[in-house]
Design brief:
The structure is a single chain. The protein is mainly alpha-helical. The protein contains 16 helices and 2 strands. The chain has 2 domains: 33-101, no CATH class; 113-312, Orthogonal Bundle (MetI-like fold), CATH 1.10.3720.10. The chain has a two-stranded antiparallel sheet with strand order 1-2. The longest helix is centred in the middle third of the chain and has 36 residues, at 112-147.
Length: 354
Amino acid sequence: MPYFLKRLLLIIPTIWAIMTINFMIVQFVPGGPVDQIIASMKGSGSSHMQNLKNQNSDGKSMDMSQSINEENRQKLIQQFGFDQPAWFRYLLMLKNYALFELGESYYQNKSVYALIQEKLPVSASLGIWSTLLIYLISIILGIRKAIQHGSTFDVLSSLIVIVCNAIPVFVMAILMLTIFSGGYFFDIFPLKDLVSPDFDTFSWPVKMMDYLWHISLPIFCMVITGLATLMFLTKNSFLDQMTQQYVTCAYAKGLNQKSVLYKHIFRNAMLIVISGFPASFIGMFFTGSLMIEIIFSLDGLGLLGYNAINQLDYPVVFGSLYLFSLMGLLINIVCDWLLGWVDPRIDLTKGTRA
């Protein structure tokens, strides 16, 4: 328990370091939200910029259709708080994040929490399902490949997985859309969105089928291009454990292959797989689905973060970074606990086997 308490307390300086480094980097980024808005209004004048909620110091709406002059520029600077020195904005950021106050988007009249909540179902659907399927399929294939090492199945499955892994996920997505979504061959799956427009009118069984129908192609693309690393890791881990002395002793005691494989080897072989779960999950959940979201017109967290970085929407960028970093650190602690649960011989206080 003291070990996990120490790990929880270490989250505080880790998060502080992450946010501090990123805040310092932003200070040297040329341009900013104010320059973006002014350039947009002078140029394309996109609707979401023109509809931006702007107020002056008196609380009255500022006419964004008037020509942009230095006075209006100063009003924008004051509205976004850039008239304050960097140290003051830094301390204010730390205070707000300590209270889990993430602020409001510069470009959308919504809080960061509201935006994340709005986009979360899409990324959760892609991230959770794809991660679960990748782990399930990779572990099953890896174990079978280890048992049948050097066989025709081992060679062919390796070849197929390597070829699929070599195909970029966006290329696979375009290929699947061309074949199965009304391209040159079949019109089986929908082109975009997570559910149908009239989803709310469906019964629960139909809702479930509609949901699965929409996510089938995106999930397939993410899974089929993400199997290789984990599958070979599982296979090599099992092959390594199968040569250990305790396995020979287990067979000498008369245990059959199934008992040795799943009662002895499985627990030890899974340690390396479990240790890589945090990075895999966070990567798949928040960043791995960006191209899939763009190609399949799915408005999720990946697309939200990408647009926020392009627009220099600092509250969304920093708020997302804060929440996702915190989640990643917590998942790391959970995985450490899982390692100790899977193999009680691991002494977490020393990072070694007892």
